[in-house]
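Write out the 3D structure for:
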Amino acid sequence: MSEIDLKNPSLYINRELSNIEFNRRVLEECENPEHPLLERAKFLAIFSGNMDEFFMVRVSGLKQQVLLGITDRPADGLTPREQLVAIHRTVTQLFAQANNMWLKTLQPALAEVGIHALNHSDLKARQQKKLSAYFEQEIFPVLTPLVFDPTHPFPHISNLSLNLAVEVRDPDTDEIHFARVKVPATLPRLVPLNPLDPDELLPPATQKFIWLEQVIAANLDRLFPGMDVRAAYPFRVTRNTDMEIQEEEADDLLLTMEENLRQRHFGRVVRLEIDEETPEVIRNILMSNLKVSATDVYATNGPLGLSSLWELHKTERPELKDKGFQPTVPSTLRTGDSIFNVLQRTNVLLHTPFDSFLPVVDFVEAAAEDPSVLAIKQTLYRLGPNPPIVHALMKARENGKQVAVLVELKARFDEESNIEWARALERAGVHVAYGLIGLKTHCKLCLVVRRERDGIRRYVHMATGNYNTITARLYTDLGLITSDEDMGADASELFNYLTGYSKQVDYRKFLVAPVNLRENLLRLIEQEMAYGRNGRIVIKANSLVDPGVIRALYQASQAGVQIDLIIRGFCCLRPGIKGVSENIRVRSIVGRFLEHSRIYYFHNKGNPDIYAGSADPMPRNINRRVEVLFPIEDETERQQIITILTVYLHDTAKAHDLHSDGRYEPVVNTLEEGEEPFNSQFWFLNGRHSDKKPPFDLHVLPCTAETEEKEQGKEKAASK
């Protein structure tokens, strides 16, 4: 093994730039004609929302480091200031690409099928008059113009709000004044024109929309009577929303979180988006009062805040959206027997959304109603609106069961929802805890304690995804429900750790962060290193950042271990470097569903160690979160996991391969002429239930050294 410095910054990709590349792949889905048209618009909305969050959290964090004079370098060696320069250069090009995607591709294509996102100038005089009446009745009462002059301070501009910078002239004094009008987020951003103009004869299914800010801009004379409205220019502000919580000093974490959420609207401005026609004088007013530099300003000639395209996606045009699907319910749960009787005989492994999430809801609801159930303990991270599991937990308390719930209040951008449901649970008499000081509880765990004829039995659900019925149809995740005694005991120990003063460090089967996950993950990698060319590692995760794990994977590659990494988001490891990572392949899959499941496969000479759970190989997950990886031990379930990994590794339709220079290449571009692309998510939806088999063995992971040697032996024997 060569003496290569595995801490050399050239061996690592910058996390933030890799994050941007992930969002580039999301944006590229807008260009894919295989997606129905409204789904392509959806991907543009997702891209825009992702970039909002990137600035609110990642860019704001780097700016804070620069302000504090922090020059620490991550594994890739870039200082915070150098990262900001590289980010600005990259996202400027990316934002231009997104804007062109809307103006030159999606907007015209939608118009061709009868969905028109119009400008005010496109409208007929009759339609403009109708809109003025709508403005008078629905919009005008909500607006509050705020002037800025020596006697009026510059108004506060809230995070992600859309605004108009208005220039007005006093005809009596000829003085020019500046005012700000906030575009109300409580009204539709895309105003439907059809109901306002019912007399217009339109072809069937034709729908017309007008941007709300343009309706306001066209009627500003009503806000400034007697003044000459010279011009109005849209602008949008992004603020630092990464909250810092002094938990040790907080007497009541719930109240502290509520106060922090209120302060989120006042964070430092990290991005100013403006219309490219905005004159320099107004640019300077905005930049000066928002305290931003020229590199924080992004100008465009299209609509700001394209995440509003979600509103178009709600349009009732099913032929322009993905076809609906019916998730599968495992046959073991279709017998009519109670779920507890089923779990006494067998485990239930679910791969959502291809398998239904309803068995998880049924599990908690059955526990709430079953008179033999004594207690339910559960972690809740992202709940969503009107979560049935929360209602089941409250029902369980009404039925006299002991219910303890750990609600993670620090789930970013879900804090308000979690606070609301935490209070509702407390009012129902549920014991609610808020986690550990300094740690975010990210594991997905539900424990049911039941009295049975032969004594107390524990049932436990563990998962890679949240207890959220909405995202369960949008994200791919794995969940296991079992009555395994050791896993039930581990779950009990973990809840004692979360809600009490337990310092439990030894678990029977769980790998728990920050207790023992890192050491066991490194141990499993080292185990494969010992097998050399017969070693095999496959990891599927959202992101790969942790330098210690990356170095261990580099060492395993140097030892000849074949490694496949299916990393949806950002990846700081560089594959394919001679002498370091030539045995490592990295791919990202971006498709209809958000790939969210985490799977860790270690071949172990044909007796694989397989884990699934909530943890990505990132410092925050391993060091600063409570995470759980649980083993997959049943042979049938292990084969299910191997099939899942095998299908993803054969994807040639939605997969992108990472090159050592940080560039991603769509695998479909490498196919030979006439070769049919294979779509892994489509196969999980449809192919697994058909008689047509894919062109590969579903039960054999590709690329193992053992398989290669056997194939080479067969070829030699055949040639003889």
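Residues 511-719 form a domain with the Endonuclease; Chain A fold (CATH 3.30.870.10).
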